[in-house]
Every structure is written in structure tokens, then in C-alpha cells.
Amino acid sequence: MAVAVGAREVAGVQLPVPGTWTIDKAHSSVEFVVRHLMVSKVRGRFADFSGAIEVGEDPTATSVSVSIDASTITTGDDTRDGHLRSADFFEAEAHPAVTFTSTKVEGSGEEWKLYGDLTVRGVTKPVVLDVEYAGLTGDPWGNVRIGFSASTELDREDWGLTWNQALETGGVLVGKKIKVELEVEAIRAAE
Predict the structure, then answer these.
(1) pLDDT for 51
(2) pLDDT at res. 32
(3) CA–CA separation, 138 vs 15, rounded Å?
(4) Which of 58, 72, 121, 159 is deepest in the core (most CB within 10 A)?
(5) What average pLDDT does the structure give for the chain?
(6) Are 21 and 186 in contact (CB under 8 A)?
(7) Is 172 a residue whose pLDDT tops 80?
């Protein structure tokens, strides 16, 4: 098998060469899903974020750093979005960034685990993301790009996002568990 430009073969899989890969916001997403009224799910996303992947010579020495603008949370409802930006949830004015900094990478081939510290509202807790590496390709403009999907499930109360309302029928208005889903395309930085 021929190795693509910007790639190297590791254990039969084409992985990106070492160096800096910048997240392409136009072709990436940071989304979440949470239960509402115990019977349905609400989806949301953050519209503004940035980050970089420092691919190591040893793929497990790779590191990732991401910063998300908390004020860009959107769920399709302006009233709800304003509430999510308030002190009841993200307190975006006082804590404008949600950040992730990796601490360890494990895996091989297409399946990886990314460990790191997630900071929300000034509270930092460890998280583990399941990562699926989608591959590497060139684009029509001469750039090299990588893609992957990542997901995890979090308990929002671990980060002080504890606002809720009890329901007369039992249960609560907003679920505690949040499913985080990422689709990331990154572009190799110029050397």
C-alpha cells in the first residue's frame, strides 16, 4: 500500500506524520445531547472553538488542546441558550472558556482513548474520550487533513452545573448525564 503525503504507516495503518495539526472549525463540530423532562433529548453545540493536535513520533505521545467559547452555546432556542450562558449553568461571562488538555493517549489503528482534563466554570476534572480515527487525505488546495470522531458521557454536576427542577410526576427537568460528540477535521500546519 502506498503511503499518502503527510502520513506514515504504523502497524499497517496510515497515521499522520509528527507535527502540529490545527482543528478546522469550518469542518468540525462540538455537540452534546441531554435528556429533557426525562422523555426526550435536546441537542446543542458550541459554534466557536479552536485547538491543535501535536502528533508525536510515537503516536501515544500525541497531545491535544482545545478551547471552546462558552458564550457560543446554541440549542435552537434563544431563551434556553441565555439560561445556559447564565450563572445557573456555564456562567459564560465569568468563565468564557471551556478547555480540554490531554494527559495521555492509548490505542492503535482506528480505535483510541484520549485522556485529559476538562475545565468548565473553573472546575477541572479528568475525562476519557473514545476516539475513532477516520484517516488522512489531501484536499484540492494542497493541504493534508486528518479526521476523527470522539465521544464521552459526563455527569454535568461534577463541574458544578447543578441547576434543575423537580417534576410533579417524578424525575427532573434536565438530565444529569451529557453525551458529548465531536467530529474533527484538522489540517497539517505549514513547516
Answers:
(1) 97
(2) 96
(3) 13
(4) 159
(5) 91
(6) yes
(7) no
The three-class DSSP label of residue 13 is strand
The secondary element (H helix, E strand) that includes residue 9 is: strand 7-10
| 4, three cell numbers | 499518502
List phi, psi (to 5°) of 8. Answer: -145, 150
Q: pLDDT tens across 19-75, in order?
A: 999 999 999 999 999 988 777 899 999 999 999 999 999 999 999 999 999 999 999
Q: How far is CA 70 from the centre of its chain?
A: 13
Classify 7-188 by CATH class.
mainly beta
> 64: which 3 cell numbers?
491535544
pLDDT at position 38 is 77
User: Long-range contacts made by residues 164-171, C-beta under 8 angstroms, separation at least 24?
Assistant: 167/37, 167/38, 170/38, 171/37, 171/38
Say if CB 72 and CB 50 are below 8 A apart.
no
List of E strands, 17-140: 19-23, 29-36, 40-46, 49-55, 63-69, 73-74, 97-108, 111-120, 123-138
- Cα 68 to chain centroid distance, Å, stands at 9
Return the C-alpha cell found at 167: 417534576
